[in-house]
Amino acid sequence: MILAKIRSEYKPGIKVKNRGARNNPLALKVTLMKLKSQAIGLESIPIEEREYFYLSFISNEIGYNQEGKEFRDKPIFLCKEWSVGKCVDWLAQKWSLINKNNQSDKPKLILTSEGLLINNDDDSKKCCEKQSNNLIISNVIVSTDLLILTYLEI
């Protein structure tokens, strides 16, 4: 459902922006330079601890009527030392999204990637318990990736 919504935004035959091919270091460097010049984030994060991504918020029927707050491809930076939960908390505060992750019976606001949604194998649950640095080291996410912020029933 969420993947269908993402893909519906990009019309067939139109090439989606290059997010930096993992096997092309020059393309990754150019994309990262462009991203760094536009990225939004907490300015107190030291430059050497920043990781740069594109972020899209996709609302859905379980998402507390947040449809008007949807956005696509916002350039952001996060601290690689933060846990994914702290990243979600900061992003929710920055874009005024409802975050009830501390209540067990409510839909959770999660930060994921298209790859994790495609695999659909509890990695999204594991992802929430890790530090972003560990996800980068293990190549679950790569700098310049598109991250997705959405609500899921977990």
Automatic annotation (TrEMBL):
It comes from Euroglyphus maynei (Mayne's house dust mite). Residues 77-136 form the ZFAND1-like ubiquitin-like domain. It comes from the Eukaryota. It holds the Pfam family UBL_ZFAND1. This is ZFAND1-like ubiquitin-like domain-containing protein.
